[in-house]
Structures are given as structure tokens and as C-alpha cells.
Amino acid sequence: MKNRGYACVLIACLLLFAGCHAAENDTDIEDKVISETVSEDGVLAFTEYDTKVTCKCDLDKDGKCEIITADYSETLKDHQLPINMTVMSGDREVILWQDPDMGLPGMGWKSYYVTVIDGSAYLMEYHPPEDRQGLYDYSLKIFTIDSNGNEVIYADINGDTKEAVDEFNKQISKYMDNAYPFISTENGNIMTSRLVLRGSE
Known about the structure:
alpha+beta; six-stranded antiparallel beta sheet; 12 strands; globular
């Protein structure tokens, strides 16, 4: 009888260990690193996971890296939910900035790039020229985030007519040519820095 009790305890421990191990494996699968990229100057470091992409860079110019994250795990489950786009302190304790509107429904379509200008990191929010039911609204905003979470605008270029599209493209080309794609929801599809379609079928 005593041996049977020990056997039951042993089996319970084995099952508990197996459950914990399975849970660890599930976490590893969810957070699996797909790719890692560092810019040639070393200012930007990108990591793409299975359901999010991050970029480490010094956005507030204090000598310490912040973490830009676009987490689309919930968006893939429910296409009406927004992408969790944030800038966090390097210790991940404070959200400095957040875009609550980025998503797959039409009003949430936009693209983010990260770039380096004169040795400093910048976020770029881009709305490409497109005829949307006869209306044009295109823009490129280049900005950093200060230590208080405020946007510090470097450049804001925009337009709203078909005739000005060529001039807009000419103005932004010097910034776009050196930018790294980060996350996009244009046309209702999630695209990451690796330009892999994540889908909203």
C-alpha cells in the first residue's frame, strides 16, 4: 500500500513536470525568433518573432535604447483588434508612446519605418498616395520620442491632391531610400520588416 502511494506521487510529479515543460515549449513557439538584423551603423537592431517585431534604438537620445514593438498576435486572432504598437523604456517598465489606431480596418491602414538621420534613430509614419474614393490624403511624418513620451517632429510632409503626388514622392525619397520597413497594414494586410505577408484573408 505504501509503495502504491509512492508510485502515485511519482506519477503526479512526472505529469506536473511534463505539463510545465509543455508550457515552456508553447512559450518558446509563441516567441520564436524568426530573424535578427542590425543596421550597418549599429544604431538599429531588429528582431522578428512569430507574432511581433521589435527594434532597439535610442529614440530619446539619452544614450540608452528604447524598444519599439509591433505586437500583432491578437490582430491575427481577430482582425478587428488593433496592432499593439508601442515604444517602451529599455527595461520594459514604462510605455512612452503608443499608436492605438493601427489595424486592418481601412481607417487603421498605415506603415511604420525606422531610419537613422545624422547618427540618430527616428520613427517614420507613412501613408502612401492612393485614390480612396476620389480623396487623396498622403503623408510622411518623421519623429523621435522624448523621455516624457512626447513626439518630437523632425519632418512632416503631406498632401491631398492627385497633382501634388509626384512632388510628394520626390520630397520623401531621400528619407525612404535609407529607411528600414518595420510594420504595415496597408490594404488590410500585415507586413513586417521582412516583408512577409502575415495575412488578413
